[in-house]
Specification:
Layout: H1 5-19, H2 37-43, H3 46-65, H4 69-83, H5 89-103, E1 125-128, E2 132-136, E3 141-145, E4 163-165, E5 171-176, E6 179-184, E7 202-205, E8 209-214, E9 217-222, E10 238-243, E11 247-252, E12 257-261, H6 267-272, E13 277-282, E14 286-291, E15 296-300, E16 315-320, E17 325-329, E18 334-337, E19 354-359, E20 363-368, E21 372-376, H7 392-399
Antiparallel strand pairs: 1-2, 2-3, 4-5, 5-6, 7-8, 8-9, 10-11, 11-12, 13-14, 14-15, 16-17, 17-18, 19-20, 20-21
Length: about 400
């Protein structure tokens, strides 16, 4: 009997996954060609799309470690057939998280950059803010730096942590099995997460407002001096969001960018000219995207430009701080451009492979498989901030603070 079209489509998807040929929002298949319910759910949900990328990285690394590669492939095919029977995003998420743990040797692979199977420290997520940085393992968050606003004062014990965000604000937001929680300087209402967004796919906090993404829709709360919380009413099919102190932006599934808030300095118009986007990050006076070809493209205000951005390709992750832009390239190389970061020297870390990076106000921290690394403004009066370089062990023993 000839195979029917649906089976052929399934097998095509499996081939994409196993060959790891990422072309769009998901790592393992082209979202523009999504057909099945499972594919469409993954492509329309930023958290599921990230898990798909993490799965691809975990599978690739597992193949390097497994002696019986054919057995691993057979096992992965069986898992893919099973996950295709999921009827909702929760089922898909749980299946992905469990599979990533198995492929990564028991550790969660829910990171921005891929599997943690070879990491020599427990930290999988990192978030740099105004004058602080936090790291997270599966079940622990530790923060260090300036405690202005209470960014170091964890509100509770976290479990099964999947996301950690701060941008360059004095607020920190984390998502675990109980949902999202924000802490720090909450006077403007940034910590008042609406009940229906406690399980949002992503939260993007700034100094005075937060935007949340859930099922392709965006809702913002907090201070609204510039209209930065007034998301357009017709905004839908959103796959990523980012904010700074005066405006907010969303990436639509078709690759376009829409922004709202302060229209001065050419900020919004320069961002909305960007196309084919799948990820976005905002600095004070610039907006940069990672496009579907894994290249970086930026829009600038009348106040700042970043030379040489257009030359970067094969980028896996980007993070904008107040002024700097940091990138993780294919293979784990870390580079930062746009503003001099005191102490940062790309040549000194050329042999380290990074899987996550987060740029703050005037410092940057990254997670390599060997270390937690931080660089930045040594003029800051807080002696616990911007120590460079530190191993993860030194950070834990000497500078990490938590309650």
């Amino acid at each position: 009997m000839k195979r029917n079209n649906r089976f052929q489509l399934l097998m095509l998807w499996l081939v994409f996954v196993l060959s790891l040929c990422g072309k769009s929002q998901a790592a393992s298949f082209d979202c523009a060609k999504a057909v099945s319910k499972t594919e469409n759910l993954i492509c329309s949900n930023v958290e599921l799309s990230q898990l798909d990328e993490n799965l691809a990285a975990a599978y690739k690394q597992a193949r390097e470690n497994y002696q019986d590669k054919e057995a691993l492939k057979t096992e992965q095919l069986a898992w893919l057939k099973a996950v295709r029977r999921c009827d909702d995003g929760i089922c898909i998420k749980n299946s992905y998280v469990e599979r990533i743990k198995i492929l990564s040797g028991g550790k969660s692979g829910a990171t921005e950059g891929g599997s943690l199977a070879k990491a020599k420290h427990p930290w999988k997520l990192i978030a740099s803010g105004d004058e602080h940085t936090c790291v997270a393992s599966d079940d622990e968050i530790k923060c260090w730096g300036n405690n202005n606003g209470g960014a170091l004062n964890l509100p509770r014990k976290f479990n099964q942590i999947t996301q950690l965000n701060s941008t360059w604000s004095t607020a920190v937001c984390a998502k675990d099995s109980a949902g999202w929680e924000c802490w720090g300087e909450c006077d403007t209402g940034v910590c008042d997460i609406p009940g229906d967004y406690k399980d949002a796919d992503k939260l993007a906090p700034a100094a005075s407002h937060v935007c949340g993404l859930k099922n392709g829709l965006v809702r913002c709360w907090g201070k609204n001096k510039y209209g930065q919380i007034d998301a357009p009413s017709d905004l839908h099919d959103v796959i990523d969001i980012a904010v700074n102190n005066i405006h907010s932006c969303a990436v639509i599934r078709d690759g376009s960018v829409r922004c709202w808030g302060n229209k001065k300095y050419n900020l919004i118009s320069s961002a909305e000219r960007l196309a084919n986007a799948k990820k976005i990050s905002l600095g004070l006076y610039f907006s940069c995207i990672l496009n579907n070809s894994n290249k970086v493209d930026c829009g600038f205000s009348t106040e700042q430009t970043i030379a040489g951005v257009e030359k970067f390709s094969n980028v896996k992750m980007l993070s904008a701080g107040l002024f700097p832009l940091c990138l993780i390239h294919s293979g784990g190389r870390l580079s930062c451009i746009g503003s001099e970061i005191q102490g940062f020297n790309e040549n000194s870390i050329k042999n380290e492979k990074f899987f996550s990076v987060s740029a703050g106000r005037s410092h940057v921290c990254g997670l390599s498989y060997e270390n937690v690394r931080c660089w930045g403004d040594y003029a800051n009066e807080d002696p616990n901030l911007y120590k460079v370089p530190h191993s993860a062990e030194e950070l834990v023993k000497k500078t990490l603070l938590s309650n």
